[in-house]
Specification:
Helices cover about 70% and strands about 0% of the residues. By secondary structure, the chain is mainly alpha-helical. It has a two-stranded antiparallel sheet. The termini are far apart.
Length: about 325
């Protein structure tokens, strides 16, 4: 009954937000870097932090400090959706929120170099997830795959709140109804992508801490590799990596290769789901270790580069005639 109430409440909240956003002109207008062509309501991803807050109040006021950290990044991201903030302010807030998260899950008991590495991974993940939010459906589908994987794992390895995972899955399904379409009714905005990235980082770090298996980081392999390789390629071309661009593989596929947003989003989600299932089976059957993890990252990166090269070659050939 609580889940039904939550689903109805979140649906009404998102419908109300879309109406208010239209009135207040909180919209995304297409420009030369956009992958869409219609004026669309921005910030529909506000439903993700709201879902977490509802969970907090409905299921025993748990994880108060982490929820406050989530609200901190959600508020600053929502402000950034309305008026452009400096990257320094955003990064400072991300660092503060990450510090609260790590304090609450007792990361600071680890050696300093481990803590430093975890900081880099989380901050990099939040920004990578935000950069990847560029076409309809991709954030929702990827989030749904990740949350569903966590929920499945949580049945045998209790590392997270199942109620929170289910609540977030419901919010993702509702968001996808308005976003996973050729002409989206709303985009996630920074408030959605950054908040969801923060929640997923919380889930993954908790899983790794409970199991001691860093190999679970492959649950974020698709986004991680696309973002990391794209940044390295841009650095090699001496581009400003903090400026908006259209050079992720998913952008080539949707903008130049002319695949629909929904098709590209589904492909990304299905590839990540396949990797997740493979990782779970490998760890369950004791096939996975640190060297297999490194080998897997190398193979996946090489496969990504080959696919990217072939796609760009096909695009160049197409536009040369």
């Amino acid at each position: 009954m609580l889940y039904l109430i939550t689903f109805v409440a979140l649906t009404i909240i998102l419908l109300g937000y879309i109406k208010i956003a239209k009135t207040l002109n909180i919209v995304d207008r297409p420009n030369s870097r956009s992958s869409h062509h219609d004026i669309t309501v921005r910030g529909g991803g506000i439903i993700f932090p709201i879902a977490a807050v509802l969970w907090h109040f409905l299921y025993g006021h748990m994880a108060l400090w982490i929820i406050l950290a989530l609200l901190l990044v959600a508020v600053i991201s929502f402000i950034d959706d309305i008026i452009l903030l400096s990257s320094g302010i955003r990064i400072l807030i991300h660092i503060i929120a990450t510090t609260i998260l790590l304090w609450q899950i007792q990361i600071f008991d680890l050696p300093w170099y481990s803590v430093f590495l975890i900081y880099i991974v989380i901050l990099g993940w939040i920004n990578a997830f935000n950069f990847m939010d560029g076409i309809n459906g991709i954030t929702g589908i990827y989030g749904l795959v990740s949350l569903s994987t966590f929920l499945w794992m949580n049945q045998s390895i209790h590392f997270f709140s199942s109620e929170l995972l289910i609540t977030l899955i419901l919010s993702t399904i509702i968001f996808l109804f308005f976003n996973f379409r050729l002409r989206a009714k709303t985009f996630a905005g920074d408030v959605g992508s950054v908040s969801l990235a923060f929640l997923l980082a919380w889930g993954l770090i908790s899983l790794i801490l409970v199991t001691g298996r860093v190999e679970y980081i492959l649950f974020f392999a698709v986004y991680g590799i696309d973002s990391a390789v794209t940044i390295l390629l841009r650095l090699a071309r001496r581009e400003n990596i903090f400026k908006a661009h259209r050079t992720h593989l998913y952008q080539f596929l949707s903008n130049e290769y002319k695949w629909s947003h929904t098709k590209v989003a589904l492909i990304y989600g299905l590839i990540q789901l396949t990797i997740n299932i493979t990782v779970i089976l490998s760890i369950t059957n004791n096939w996975m270790n640190f060297f297999v993890l490194l080998f897997s990252i190398i193979v996946l990166s090489a496969a990504y580069l080959i696919i990217r090269y072939k796609i760009q070659k096909a695009i160049n050939w197409k536009y040369s005639y």
